[in-house]
Amino acid sequence: MAPTAKTPPPRIQIQEVWPIVDCGRYPTKRTVGDTVEVWANVFRDGHDVLAASIRYRPARERRWRDTPMRPLGNDRWAGSFEVDRPGRWQYTIEAWVDRKATWVGEIGRKVQAGQEELSGELSEGAVLFGVENLTIEEALELEGGDRSDVTSLPKPLELDVDRERALFGSWYELFPRSWGGFEGVAEILPQLAELGFDVVYLPPIHPIGTTNRKGRNNALRAKKGDPGSPWAIGSELGGHDAIDPALGTIDDFDRLVERGREVGVEIALDFAIQCSPDHPWLKEHPEWFHRRPDGTLKFAENPPKRYQDIYNVNFDCEDWRDLWDALRDVVQHWVDHGVRAFRVDNPHTKPVAFWEWLIADIRSRTPEAIFLSEAFTRPAMMTTLAKVGFAQSYTYFTWKNTKWELFELMGQILGWAECYRPNFFANTPDILTEYLARGGPPAFEARLVLAATLSPTYGIYSGFEHFENVPVRETSEEYLDSEKYEVKERRLDGPLLPLVQRLNLIRRENPALQRLTNLTFLETESDALVAYAKVERGSAVIVCVNLDPFSWQEGVAIVPASLGLPPAYGARDLLRDEVYGWRIGRNYVALPPGGSHVLRVEA
Amino acid sequence: MAPTAKTPPPRIQIQEVWPIVDCGRYPTKRTVGDTVEVWANVFRDGHDVLAASIRYRPARERRWRDTPMRPLGNDRWAGSFEVDRPGRWQYTIEAWVDRKATWVGEIGRKVQAGQEELSGELSEGAVLFGVENLTIEEALELEGGDRSDVTSLPKPLELDVDRERALFGSWYELFPRSWGGFEGVAEILPQLAELGFDVVYLPPIHPIGTTNRKGRNNALRAKKGDPGSPWAIGSELGGHDAIDPALGTIDDFDRLVERGREVGVEIALDFAIQCSPDHPWLKEHPEWFHRRPDGTLKFAENPPKRYQDIYNVNFDCEDWRDLWDALRDVVQHWVDHGVRAFRVDNPHTKPVAFWEWLIADIRSRTPEAIFLSEAFTRPAMMTTLAKVGFAQSYTYFTWKNTKWELFELMGQILGWAECYRPNFFANTPDILTEYLARGGPPAFEARLVLAATLSPTYGIYSGFEHFENVPVRETSEEYLDSEKYEVKERRLDGPLLPLVQRLNLIRRENPALQRLTNLTFLETESDALVAYAKVERGSAVIVCVNLDPFSWQEGVAIVPASLGLPPAYGARDLLRDEVYGWRIGRNYVALPPGGSHVLRVEA
Question: B265: distance to nearest CA of chain A, Å?
Fold first, then answer.
């Protein structure tokens, strides 16, 4: 038996819609101000004239907005709209038959072919247009514009729109205890702003446990006066919503956030879901933690590695709903204190469904909130964390130091660009790479330029600008005398800061460096030289970096005609303020160890 | 508030499943005997040991079958199963945590790292394995094998499995009225079988209308004795379920089908949904047809083209359900008379939802039924017809005559291979290409070899083997004195038949020619020479064709090492029974106008 619906199924097909992530299971990511380009196949059996539009809205609004799609040929249609505020958006595609346009087109072709007996056709047109005794001459003047067989996607697709800082920003990581606590940090904020930083990220600022506290250089037992790792969160003084008294008070913190707002530097906090043995939750909610059949609590481990100073919560415990709510309340607490950016510690060891819920919950009230995923794991998990709501992610960048590795890395990241944004930290408190340890200052310079120009968001952890590169032991990526376990005396006087400042300024002045997907690698005829162009509406930058930290290297940068640059142009080196004559084709390049060109194309 | 379900959401992710068509909206196509390879990303937060399996079944069976997946690294898993009967199949992926294997792995790594205080761990293991007072030595002997956190795809994916003839077969199209009706066709079936044909396709066999009947060469008025076009279906003698008395009776037809079964040649019918003005349905069901406001019936047209001898049904009429049922009953009628293959006329001008319903309905009772789509239209519609159930489709092959066109065509078809199978007719009653009209016999030879070796299914329309190539007028693709409008006297004595027979035999003996996706084009350093290899489990064939129908051409066929053929081998030309020495790399080729090598690789 034929289907039992009253009307036949729709005849218009809408297929191969783009953008879409995992068949619509997850939202596509976009940034405020983006023009969202939408494509789809729209077609129907037979020869009727079709039309289509994109309907879109912020998810909270009832009213759909509407923008027409245009046919590109072969049933492919395209249109676009702008997203002007952060948060969840929806869009769908609507297509319909224009029966009037169909009729006018057909009668036109018949008249052109010299057919004269058209009375049946005219009787149709008279009904369609509501015109009595329609003549051929009148018919040829009529126009289409009605909608029948209106068809939509089965359900709207979603976009997650972030504020601009999710895509473009310069981050500086510092341990506030090494800078005189919140007051000391507040004092250097104007200088950090002048250096061009947008975000200052603080490792956990909460009371640190004393039981099993780690000593200097990760010693199993702390000595008297050792401050412990800030990631061993919680003591009798409080947990995730409390402040380590060594840093200041909550009022000091509020003043720090406020000072940042004044000078244009945002404070980002760390969200690390783990508890020292002294965290209040262990007494208040013992049911939230893993306990062995013999009654012992399980500390964190990744066998055979053991982390005796922290306990992980048990996301599968019976009381999981209260646990989830409590964790959300922690984030909400800091949102209420003005924090809009969170770096999340090891999110890949917690359930992705938890992140999807938590981030959506926070962003439903505060769509400006952005979450940075500290996930160094396999691609499936890294991209899934992006899909479920993380605005940014750490990457493998620190370990990609050869030309081929960088090429492969960027290819992978560009392939994920519909949902994933990278944050290229050049170092972290956990990652001192062999390349930096061996290469010294030229290696630091090369990596800084790469981070700041390959990815719109990048960062450095303080010490980088001082070329700190002594590992705790050969082949280790841990720093000797790591700041994770002791207090340093830090000052903003590193020798690399002038280059940092120059790059941050260049990034702000050149829109091409504020986008991810506008990257094209250039052939250089040298394994040591990497070159790439970024082109964005009237802004074009070409970067060449000598990856060799020990020797001068020479080669060419071959600019393909497909980039759309002029046949010949002035290439102004923004690091040296010199202008070279460049052209489509081969351009000679010679660079000192770790040296770079950052060239603005000037027509 | 956290989600309100009793248990937390699943932690295992199953993503990027393959094969899948349009996010699971349509089934993937496979052929009986195929090994279905399945891939997916399977992963979970944390470090637990995972396992996964494919569950699959014919859709009618309750019981799921099970086959393990194996991890390929980076969270990618793979497995496979065989489909051993036609019809709809389902498959899903199931993944789980093996908690016992996780525990055994962890305690092993701890022991290896020299950790000795493991009493808490052993208390866990004792509970997990139900062993009292577990010792370390005993623990290291334990094995995994339990399932917790079992997770599946949200719903099963579907496969549409066809019998082998849907993928591989040689078709011959003939107008039975030119061969002495059903009796005459029955007489030549043994000879067609000997020529290696698998399917004989007959244009419509129903009574032909007399009103507005077309005359010879598509004249608007038939002369006395003109038989009319078989596609003007229906007269006072009956409609789509009746037989044109000029061809025989229903008993004759049954005998024809039976004779085909005896000699191994299958009869395929045409399903053309259109009615001559004399079709019984116009009187019995006037509501099924388009009527203008002035009361006139609308004949078929594609303005400014008019088809005054046929009326199209109105799929949107109020009584559409009865119309759909009646059309299905027509197909069922011929299924009941033993027909298992239908060539469908112009399916792209009927609703795709109708085809999806009709084909599924017929195949639910007769999964051996296959439908060939005669759609020459844009790619979106051609592939959608494949998705909704057509086992095969006509293609643009006839119009692709240069090397680059063939390369592009095959790339497109291979990109559709998960749901679309081509049938390469070298000509049809509607398509006499300029290449054949100008190129003469060498052009016919080249096109025959291309059709029979590029696609596992190919066909010719009778006349091809006689090199018939006179168009009704210059630039027309219609034949002069087209068989569509008159009766011919046909005999199986065309000069091209020995090559046809040879090719059909070669196709049967070489499994590499029975598959679509095993194709690799070879570089030839000549625009006139096209070369390609097809490799399939122990069978490898290399084909070289001179596309120039006027001159000898020479070049090379460059065999890449990636094909996996021996460094040097004998290449036996199956058309000439000569053996050449071929190797990886450059192989000299010289061919006469339209000539070919069909080379079997002999180790």
Answer: 32
Q: Measure CA A382 to chain center.
A: 12
Judged against a pLDDT cut of 90, whether residue A543 lies above it is answered with yes
Contacts B304 to A, Cβ<8 Å: 109-110, 112-113, 115
List the single residue in A with minimal CA-CA distance to B42: A380
Distances from the Cα of A377 to the Cα of A346, A411, A447, angstroms? 9, 17, 22
- Chain mean pLDDT for chain A: 96
Nearest C-alpha of chain A: how many angstroms from B352?
7
Among B477, B451, B272, residue whose Cα is nearest residue B373: B272
Q: What is the model's pLDDT at position B1?
A: 64
Q: Could you please report the per-residue DSSP string of A411-439?
A: HHHHHTTTT--B-EES-BTTB--HHHHHH
Residue A171 C-alpha, separation from nearest chain B C-alpha, in angstroms: 27
Task: Give residue-wise pLDDT tens across range A326-384.
Answer: 999 999 999 999 999 999 999 999 999 999 999 999 999 999 999 999 998 999 999 99
Q: Which of B13, B292, B380 sits opposite A384 (nearest CB)?
A: B13
pLDDT digits (tens, 9 = 90+) for B29-82: 999 999 999 999 999 998 999 999 999 999 999 999 999 999 999 999 999 999
- The answer to whether the Cβ–Cβ distance between A304 and B353 falls below 8 Å is no
Residue of B1, B45, B297 best to disrupt the A interface, most CBs of A under 10 A: B45
List active site positions of A. 345, 374
Which residue of A13, A302, A357 is in closest CB contact with B3?
A357
Q: What is the pLDDT of residues A489-498, one digit of tens each?
A: 999 999 999 9
What pLDDT is attached to residue B7?
Answer: 85
Please report the beta strands in B59-109, taking only residues with DSSP state E, as ranges in sequence order: 65-68, 70-73, 76-82, 87-97
* Interface touch A15/B315, C-beta < 8 Å: no
Chain B positions touching A306 (Cβ under 8 A) are: 115
Rounded to whole angstroms, how far apart are CA atoms A115 and B220? Answer: 15
Nearest C-alpha neighbor of B406 from the set B504, B527, B586, B518: B527
> Which of A73, A75, A110, A116 minimizes the C-alpha distance to A93?
A75
Question: For residue A77, which of B380, B408, B24, B388 has the smallest C-alpha distance?
Answer: B380
Task: Tell me the H-state helices in A222-345.
Answer: 250-263, 280-284, 320-336
Active site residues of B: 345, 374
pLDDT at A588: 97
Average pLDDT over residues B211-221: 94
Instruction: Return the exposure string of A195-229: e unless at least 16 CB atoms fall within 10 Å of the residue's CB, then b.
Output: bbbbbbbbbbbbbbbbebbbbeeeeeebeeebbbb
Of A316, A349, A380, the CB nearest to B43: A380
Of A4, A45, A292, the CB nearest to B351: A45
Are B386 and B419 spatial neighbours (Cβ–Cβ below 8 Å)?
yes
Q: Check whether A1 has a pLDDT greater than 90.
A: no
Nearest Cα of chain A lies from the Cα of B126 at a distance, in angstroms, of 9
Global confidence as pTM: 0.94
Contact at 8 Å (CB) between B23 and B16? no
